[in-house]
């Protein structure tokens, strides 16, 4: 049994004795409530219905209305409140797109604030702007261009912000009916290494535990993850974890203030005095995670702090792992990790003494050229003590978007079919029998590969649902040049984005989408903890001629393949769910979800429960890991990109309320600043062979030799060619020099 939180107040956990943290740097969550009300005054009853009945379209924690399945009380966060206006705003006047030169200098936030996209619109090369067209005209343009080229020159991309399982499933089916596997989603640039590494090591491709396992476990470890910023409601779970005696540890290259202390607005004690979360921070170099975790493993083995019986009975490759670790010297591990041998020992002792532990990670682990190995290093650590498949234990790649978990599972992925099955002739043939048409067998292009094809003039049609390649991929100039070479670009979204306004190579089509709350028949999402939740249609607010994405893709496929029109038709979202249950076994039960509050957790509360691993040999696999070599030349810094008061690439404020850093901040250690004669606010420029970024020094508790800058601003310094080998995720880190201006 997990330890239960104490109900009495615990002054030892308080962040400050000052009521409401007066004078402290932290988000004013109550202000966010009033701001959301003010912004949606013109549509307040609908806004309330969205919050009270809908499933959150923010991060992937998952709700039904304002309740969750982990703790009692209201579940609403500032991310969801910030996104609320996108569901309640009115349409913009299409006349504003008649001359796009008037919009070129607007920031993305300003473009979003113009309002919802109401009608299909088309812009031809050398035209100043867009003209309204009918849906029939728009579909005709797209279908004719697709028919005029070959499937290998088509590219499709689906964002994950608010995207639902029904859209993912119907879209990938339509694209494969058209004849290509060139469809990818936003998971490619966030947790694709997690999916790959978990699958090869454990036989599963999702978090193995539930949020409830955080509360009362012995040890809760966050590695390269800042949940206070990106999944803010989790701070409520952290508060109760502390009250249950859970030890919270963070491994990162910055001592994130929000992971150190926070004022949780929905808990009176914490709202008044705050809560101290992490008891220990281990600061490591950018890219130093494997070295730190390998050093931890060496200590665990040397001190016999491992579960030998579990390792012998339920795992393989442990001897190979030991053989790889033995020649790795402590001096090498210290140099690469940036941590000392004693620090690795201290963490190893915590792991060794824990009977139960949960490991949580995010983009700080995955968005590396060695992303898969970073994840495998965490899995190795968990397997030494059997911290998987039982209560209070687990491996959790925490998701940032409400729709991202279901994307690959629905098959909306260039490298897998529905259910996460690899693209093989056998799997394609099996799916072809079910669908009644031939499913392509060649691997599709990932999102970054699609942009490469566009740059090389090997892409004739790019259909993007949401997202903004200009703000999510490395080297924005390269991405812009690539997009401008595609003869037909189609952008389907609820609001404007900067990539829509780029000069057409020939034609650009804009299509208005509905939100999840506007879809007839309701929809579902899958959360980080694998909970599939029904989100009902919210009657009322509707925009122009906006349509659900799944309907558009079905109609497009029928235009292109009229001979199989009856095979690519759904009469509503309930019919899509029926087919999902048939095609994807772990989603059996989705067909029964039809009312607010309906949900189930596929795989149960714990995957691999009882240490049953769905691998070929039925065992978990250790992964022997060599150390990724990264030299740091004199005068250079390792730099990584971070989020700050934003939701993915959607920047919401100039200043991060948790850290106090503004968008052009260059987070630097006091030690490095002193060496260079720099102080807070000094103007500097970061440079490498790829570009330069001007900013201002922001002294913070960052590991010396490392810098942090905001994303997507920092994308100008990133190497577009650096990608992980298995999943192809871009490396969002770089090597730079720094000069004072």
TrEMBL record:
It comes from Aerosakkonema funiforme FACHB-1375. PANTHER family: PROTEIN YDEP (PTHR43105:SF4), RESPIRATORY NITRATE REDUCTASE (PTHR43105). Residues 116-558 form the Molybdopterin oxidoreductase domain. One of its GO terms (cellular component) is membrane. One of its GO terms (molecular function) is formate dehydrogenase (NAD+) activity. Residues 638-734 form the Molybdopterin dinucleotide-binding domain. Keywords: Iron, Iron-sulfur, Metal-binding. Pfam families: Molybdopterin, Molydop_binding. The lineage of its organism: Bacteria, Bacillati, Cyanobacteriota, Cyanophyceae, Oscillatoriophycideae. InterPro entries: Asp_de-COase-like_dom_sf, MoPterin_dinucl-bd_dom, Mopterin_OxRdtase, Mopterin_OxRdtse_a_bac, Prok_molybdopt-oxidoreductase. This is FdhF/YdeP family oxidoreductase.
């Amino acid at each position: 049994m997990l330890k239960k939180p104490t109900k009495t107040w615990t002054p030892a956990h308080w962040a400050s004795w000052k009521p409401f943290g007066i004078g402290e740097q932290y988000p004013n969550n109550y202000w966010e409530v009033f701001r959301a009300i003010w912004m949606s005054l013109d549509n307040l009853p609908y806004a309330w219905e969205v919050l009270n009945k809908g499933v959150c379209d923010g991060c992937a924690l998952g709700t039904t209305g304002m309740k969750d399945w982990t703790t009692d009380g209201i579940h609403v966060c500032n991310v969801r409140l910030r996104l609320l206006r996108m569901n309640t705003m009115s349409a913009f006047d299409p006349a504003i797109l008649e001359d796009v030169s008037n919009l070129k200098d607007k920031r993305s936030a300003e473009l979003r604030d113009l309002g919802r996209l109401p009608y299909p619109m088309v812009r031809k090369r050398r035209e100043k702007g867009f003209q309204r067209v009918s849906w029939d005209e728009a579909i005709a343009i797209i279908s004719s261009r697709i028919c005029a080229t070959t499937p290998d020159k088509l590219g499709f991309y689906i964002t994950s912000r608010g995207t639902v399982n029904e859209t993912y499933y119907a879209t990938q089916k339509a694209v494969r009916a058209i004849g290509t596997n060139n469809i990818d989603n936003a998971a490619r640039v966030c947790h694709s290494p997690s999916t790959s590494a978990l699958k090869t090591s454990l036989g599963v491709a999702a978090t193995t535990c539930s949020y409830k396992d955080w509360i009362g476990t012995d040890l809760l470890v966050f590695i390269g993850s800042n949940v206070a910023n990106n999944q803010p409601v989790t701070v409520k779970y952290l508060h109760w974890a502390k009250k249950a005696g859970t030890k919270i540890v963070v491994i990162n290259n910055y001592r994130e203030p929000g992971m150190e202390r926070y004022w949780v607005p929905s808990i009176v004690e914490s709202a008044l005095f705050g809560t101290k979360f992490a008891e220990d921070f281990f600061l490591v170099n950018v890219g130093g995670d494997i070295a730190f975790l390998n050093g931890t493993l060496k200590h665990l083995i040397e001190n016999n702090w491992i579960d030998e019986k579990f390792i012998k009975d339920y795992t393989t490759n442990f001897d190979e792992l030991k053989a790889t670790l033995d020649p790795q010297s402590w001096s090498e591990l210290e140099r690469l990790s940036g941590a000392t041998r004693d620090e690795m020992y201290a963490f190893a002792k915590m792991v060794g003494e824990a009977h139960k532990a949960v490991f949580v990670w995010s983009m700080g682990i995955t968005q590396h050229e060695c992303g898969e190995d970073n994840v495998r290093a965490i899995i190795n650590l968990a397997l030494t003590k059997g911290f998987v498949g039982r209560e209070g234990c687990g491996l959790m790649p925490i998701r940032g978007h409400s729709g991202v978990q279901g994307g690959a599972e629905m098959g909306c992925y260039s490298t897998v079919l529905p259910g996460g099955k690899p693209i093989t002739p056998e799997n394609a043939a099996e799916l072809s029998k079910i669908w009644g048409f031939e499913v392509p067998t060649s691997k599709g292009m990932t999102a970054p590969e699609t942009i490469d094809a566009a740059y090389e003039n090997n892409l004739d049609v790019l259909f993007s649902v949401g997202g903004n390649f200009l703000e999510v991929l490395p080297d924005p100039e390269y991405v812009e040049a690539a997009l401008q070479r595609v003869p037909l670009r189609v952008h389907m979204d609820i609001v404007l984005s900067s990539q829509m306004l780029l000069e057409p190579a020939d034609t650009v089509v804009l299509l208005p989408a509905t939100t999840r709350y506007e879809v007839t028949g309701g929809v579902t999402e899958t959360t980080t903890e694998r909970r599939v939740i029904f989100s009902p249609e919210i009657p009322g607010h509707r925009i122009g001629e906006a349509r659900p994405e799944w309907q558009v893709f079905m109609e497009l496929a029928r235009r292109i393949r009229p001979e199989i029109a009856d095979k690519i038709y759904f009469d509503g979202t309930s019919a899509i769910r029926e087919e999902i249950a048939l095609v994807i076994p772990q989603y059996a039960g989705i067909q029964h979800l039809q009312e607010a509050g309906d949900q189930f957790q596929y795989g149960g509360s714990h995957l691999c429960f009882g240490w049953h691993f769905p691998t070929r040999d039925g065992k978990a696999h250790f992964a022997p890991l060599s150390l990724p070599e990264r030299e740091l030349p004199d005068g250079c810094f390792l730099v990584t990109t971070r989020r700050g008061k934003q939701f993915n690439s959607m920047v919401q404020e100039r200043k991060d309320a948790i850290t106090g850093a503004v968008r052009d901040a260059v987070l630097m250690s006091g030690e490095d600043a002193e060496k260079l004669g720099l102080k807070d606010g000094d103007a500097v420029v970061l440079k490498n062979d790829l570009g330069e970024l001007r900013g201002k020094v922001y002294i913070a508790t960052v590991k010396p030799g490392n810098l942090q800058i905001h994303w997507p601003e920092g994308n100008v310094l990133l190497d577009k060619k650096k990608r992980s080998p298995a999943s192809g995720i871009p490396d969002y880190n770089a090597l730079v020099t720094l000069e004072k201006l």
